[in-house]
Design a protein that fits this description.
Elements (H helix, E strand, L loop, with lengths): L1 H9 L1 H10 L3 H23 L2 H17 L10 H22 L1 H10 L5 H5 L7 H20 L2 H10 L6 H8 L3 H18 L14
């Protein structure tokens, strides 16, 4: 308990989760508010279907709440919740492989709403640039989706604020050096595929 409290002092989100463990629903609402968009971004990019992504994202927070009674501060809260999100996505991908017809139908139904357009940060464009920006978002989305799962997840988590290489490594279950290699290879692949579009600045490398 003392270790939990000391660790939580370094991670305010872990402190909130300890309050959730004690039955504080307001603390849970704060965590949902902070993480709903980052979790949704990761899940939607992984599953490439907005409707399924919404369902899985809801299950992420449901699992967080149901696991509250046994929560311990063994890592940053963000590491813990992104690990849950990734595991649920992988479970859904395995389910799809067993029931491919369901995935085909779901993809067709979701074609009208492009995940990248739904989830990208809001930006303002002058009217002449809107069509080019729309095309770029589709190209970026296609390039990111084509990456191997670990590369894609590593890149997406790298774009989250305050998520370190060490945290990404824990989510992926690999070493820090392997994580850096995944991110590097993913970026190089994107650069190669998006050369004609890079000057627009919509996708750029993190430092």
């Amino acid at each position: 308990m003392l270790l939990d409290l000391m660790s939580a002092q370094l991670d305010p989100d872990a402190a909130l989760m300890l309050r959730v463990r004690e039955g504080d629903r307001d603390a849970f609402a704060l965590l949902v508010d902070r993480y709903k968009q980052p979790v949704m971004n990761l899940v939607a990019r992984t599953l490439r279907d907005l409707t399924e992504a919404e369902d899985v994202a809801q299950h992420v927070f449901l699992q967080v709440y149901k696991s509250a009674h046994r929560y311990e501060v063994t890592a940053k809260f963000s590491t813990w919740i992104f690990t849950i999100a990734r595991n649920l996505c992988l479970n859904e991908i395995r389910r799809r492989s067993r029931h491919p017809a369901d995935s085909i139908d779901a993809t067709r139904e979701g074609d009208d709403e492009h995940p990248a357009r739904q989830l990208e940060d809001a930006r303002t464009f002058s009217p002449p640039d809107t069509l080019l920006q729309h095309e770029l978002e589709i190209k970026v989305d296609e390039a990111v989706n084509a990456l191997p799962e670990k590369q894609r997840t590593a890149l997406l988590l790298c774009r989250q604020e305050d998520v370190s290489y060490e945290e990404i490594a824990k989510v992926l279950g690999c070493s820090v050096s392997a994580t850096k290699s995944l991110i590097h290879r993913g970026r190089e692949t994107l650069k190669e595929q998006l050369k004609p579009y890079l000057k627009t600045g919509v996708w750029h490398d993190a430092d």
